[in-house]
Amino acid sequence: MQRSPVGxxxxxxxxxxxxxxxxxxxxxxxxxxxxxxxxANLKEQQxxxxxxxxxxxxxxxxxxxxxxxxxTAASLPGALILTLAAxxxxxxxxxxxxxxxxxxxxxxxxxxxxxxLFRDTIKARFGDRLKAIDDGVEKDGPFYLxxxxxxxxxxxxxxxxxxxxxxxxxxxxxxxxxxxxLLGTVVYVNAGTQLANIDxxxxxxxxxxxxxxxxxxxxxxxxKWIVGLIKRRKVYARWTRPKNMTAIWW
Length: 250
Hints:
Elements: H1 5-30, H2 39-55, H3 57-73, H4 79-90, H5 92-125, H6 127-150, H7 156-163, H8 170-192, H9 207-217, H10 219-236
C-alpha cells in the first residue's frame, strides 16, 4: 500500500524532527557540555559572564534566552544550573522573567513535538485506554498539570512529553505551566543571586522546601473541592428539606 503525498510529507517531517533531537543529544554529550553546566563551573565563570553582560546586555539576554529555550525543548539536562545562572547574572526580577518565559516556551515546544511525533501512534494502538485518559484530562487536566508543576520532585521534561500524548489544549498547557512553574523559578533564581553561598545544588532543594511545594501542589484540589461543595449547596438550596424522613414516603 502506497503512502499518499501528505502521508510521506508527514513521515519526512517526523524523521527530520527526530533527527534534530538526536543531533542535539549527540552534540551535548560529544562536546561534553554537561561539564560546563555545573555549579563549580558557574562560580568560576561568573566574573566573565558579568563582564560580557555589562558590555552587551541585550545580546547576552538574547543568547541566554535562546539557549534556555533550546535546552528545555530538547529535554537536555542543565535547566537548574541555567536557572541559577539567570539569578547570578540578571538578578531576581529580570532573571525570573527571562527564565519563566524561556522555560515555558521550551516546555511547550517539547509538548507539541511529543504530540506530533507520538500521539497518533499511541492513539492507534491504545485508542480505548487513551480515550479514558483524555476524558479525565478534559475534566481535570489543568488541575493535574498545575499540581505536577508545583511539585518539583517530578521531572519537568517527562511532564512535557507525557502531556503531549493527551488531548489537553496547547494554550491551556502553556498558561498552566507558566503559572505552575513560576514559584519554583523565583526560588531558584533568587538562590542564584547568592551563588557564592551555595556549595551543592542540594543546599537549595531542602526536604522542608520540597514538602512546602508538595503542600502547595494539593492546593488546587482543595480549591476545586470547596467550589464543588458550594455548587452542591446552591443546588440543594432550591429544594425544601422534609422535616423527617417519613415525609418522603407520603
